[in-house]
Write a structure and sequence with these properties.
By secondary structure, the chain is an alpha/beta fold. The chain is built from 3 helices and 6 strands; from the N terminus they run E-E-E-E-H-E-H-E-H.
Length: 118
């Protein structure tokens, strides 16, 4: 079962995108898919896509923190970005490979993706 902040009723998940598909590398994303998920039913309650901020150190972690994100699911991410997400209390799951964003969220909720611990 995914890590859920007890202060949140729902789990907020972000998936970086390039051209509408999951980004292989966080720094290459142009948009971010956001999913609000009920951790009990594992059902997606809401889904939206946001423009990514400029690729500058700290901008994406700051923006995702402002959006209340709990978890980022992505392919690769540099150590500096991992540290910035960790400082914001956002869990990072790496090595996510090409699937649809919805399938990635489903796999995560079913425990098929593992959490990266720096």
């Amino acid at each position: 079962m995914p890590i859920v902040d007890q202060q949140h009723r729902h789990l907020m998940i972000a998936i970086p995108l390039v051209g509408g598909s999951p980004a292989r590398m966080l720094g290459k994303c142009d948009k971010v898919a956001i999913f609000q998920v009920d951790p009990q039913s594992k059902r997606v309650l809401y889904e939206s896509v946001h423009e990514a901020p400029p690729h500058e150190p700290g901008q994406l972690p700051l923006r995702l923190d402002q959006l209340g994100i709990d978890v980022v699911l992505t392919g690769e991410m540099g150590k500096m970005a991992q540290d910035l997400f960790e400082q914001k209390g956002i869990t990072v799951v790496l090595n996510v490979r090409s699937k649809t964003p919805t399938q990635i969220v489903s796999d995560f909720m079913d425990g098929k993706l593992t959490t990266h611990l720096p």
